[in-house]
Amino acid sequence: MSATDTPKRSMRTPLGRVRNLGAAHSGTSDFWRQRLTGVAMTLLMIPVLVIIMMLLGRNQAGAKQILGSLPVAIIMVLFIIASAWHMKIGMQVVIEDYVHNEKLKLTAIILNNFFSIAVALASIYAILQLSSGV
Amino acid sequence: MQVYRWTLTMALSIVHRATGIALYVGTLLLAWWLIAAASGPAAYAHVQAFTGSIIGRLIVFGYTWALMHHMLSGIRHFVWDLGYGFKANEREALTWGAAIGGIALTVLIWIIAYAIGGGR
């Protein structure tokens, strides 16, 4: 944003405006969490691939037995939480980079949050239901 | 943008985003699969019929590649975040490593999958 775009004239310098928590006023927490969840998924990748390999060629009863076992369920839930969080932040970065209309941008960010949370909760609910034997 | 000469690192940066977006949309498939497993045999058979079809296999194959590529490309970003690998030859090596490694891991995973599942 150039100086002419700012709605009110201010004595503050561009640097002063972005100091501390930056232009988004939320600091670097998303940057940190993006990396944290990335490391988590990288570490979980081999166990998750092993689980998927175990499920190949099995019917629903077999899949239920494997996905419902405690260690598998925990690994899957951790992977789902890390994925949903990571993709929510990643998509927000893409939206902020390419969508410049303020209203459209906010709408897209809201929908991004809804999508990521819905996918995560639906997946976690399914795992919990498989684990509880309902 | 036309003033820039295309470089490998630029191309891979776009691919990192594109695979990220593909993986984002693909989580619908993951959620559908888990919900079907929780719903019962009929719903699960639907998912298996889809993933077993030619289109389904292509999508899951593409998803495997997107995941492996995005992971290795992401590890490359971790190396850069830690302050290493910025020399011209290191940059290129990391980027080629992610590009080739992503394809190699995808093929390896599918060979193992076919060996175990007998092509499902």
Structure characterization notes:
Chain A: Keywords: Electron transport, Heme, Iron, Membrane, Metal-binding, Transmembrane, Transmembrane helix, Transport, Tricarboxylic acid cycle. Chain A: Part of an enzyme complex containing four subunits: a flavoprotein, an iron-sulfur protein, plus two membrane-anchoring proteins, SdhC and SdhD. Chain A: Its main location: membrane. Chain A: It is found in: Membrane. The complex is a heterodimer of chains A (134) and B (120). Chain A contains 5 helices and no strands. Chain A is mostly helical and 134 residues long. The radius of gyration of chain A is 21 Å and the shape is elongated. The mean pLDDT of chain A is 89. By secondary structure, chain B is mostly helical. Chain B is built from 4 helices and no strands. In chain B, helix 1 (8-39) runs antiparallel to helix 2 (41-52), helix 1 packs across helix 3 and helix 3 (54-81) runs antiparallel to helix 4 (88-117). Chain B is elongated.
Shape of chain A: elongated
Give the beta-strand count of chain A.
Answer: 0
Query: How much strand of chain B?
Result: under 5%
State the end-to-end distance of chain A: 55 Å
Count of helices of chain A? Answer: 5
Q: Look up the CATH topology of chain A.
A: 3 helical TM bundles of succinate and fumarate reductases
Total domains of chain B, how many? 1
Helix content of chain A: over 70%
Spell out the helices and strands of chain A N to C: HHHHH
Q: Tell me, what is the CATH class of chain A?
A: Mainly Alpha
CATH superfamily of chain A: Fumarate reductase/succinate dehydrogenase, transmembrane subunit
Low-confidence runs of chain A: none
Which geometry of chain B do the CA atoms define? elongated
CATH topology call of chain B: 3 helical TM bundles of succinate and fumarate reductases
Number of strands of chain B: 0
Average of per-residue pLDDT values of chain B: 92
Give the termini distance of chain B in whole angstroms.
46 Å
Name of the CATH architecture of chain B = Up-down Bundle
Oligomer: heterodimer
Summed up, the domain count of chain A is 1
CATH superfamily placement of chain B:
Fumarate reductase/succinate dehydrogenase, transmembrane subunit
